[in-house]
Amino acid sequence: MVSRQPSCTGSDSGSESESLDSKSGSPEKHDGSTRRRMAANARERKRMQGLNTAFDRLRKVVPQWGQDKQLSKYETLQMALSYIMALSRILTDAQKRKAPHRQWLDLQFDCVQPENYQCFSTISYSSPDEHEYMHSSFPYQYDGLQVPT
DNA sequence: TAGGCCATCTGGTCCT
DNA sequence: AGGACCAGATGGCCTA
């Protein structure tokens, strides 16, 4: 896992209080517009933090390639899309296959669990069709994938 | 060093 | 008027 240090967090550098203080001298001298701008900046930071929290929660439930590098926001969205489509496809196919294929269905669900996602590399398929099916279910492939064999 | 990714600031727009 | 949302600009950090 790569731990990224925010280049400028709200309290250390680049915050609205510092940048605006440099213009007006001190907080007491902030006029109305400056105070509104500072408040807007604070709201925007809080909003983006909420957005990032949502991304973190999404990363936790989405298949993660490897353990050392977290998915970027873009990659997270792409993976979430593929993940949802894969689950949806499994449900659709399960309805077609009916009861006799319960074991097959269990296998599919096991494979799309984030913690078991690497099983794509070790799973043995009973037919080329199943192999093609599972890989087509996850069209988004992280370039940096290195799955242990 | 270049490129990717990210946080923050900022001004604009829309909504309540 | 004020808040939420968005997109562009800017600059820092990290990796190949």
TrEMBL record:
Domain of life: Eukaryota
UniProt region (Disordered), positions on chain: 1-50
Annotated GO biological process: axon development; positive regulation of transcription by RNA polymerase II; sensory organ development
UniProt domain BHLH: residue ranges: 35-87
Identification of the protein by name: Protein atonal homolog 7
InterPro entries on file: bHLH_dom, bHLH_transcription_factors, HLH_DNA-bd_sf
Keywords: Developmental protein, Differentiation, Neurogenesis, Nucleus, Transcription, Transcription regulation
Subcellular location, principal: nucleus
GO cellular component, one term: nucleus
GO molecular function, one term: DNA-binding transcription factor activity, RNA polymerase II-specific
Matches recorded under SMART domains: HLH (SM00353)
Keyword Chaperone belongs to the record: no
Biased composition (Low complexity): 10-25
Claim: Methyltransferase is one of the keywords in the record: no
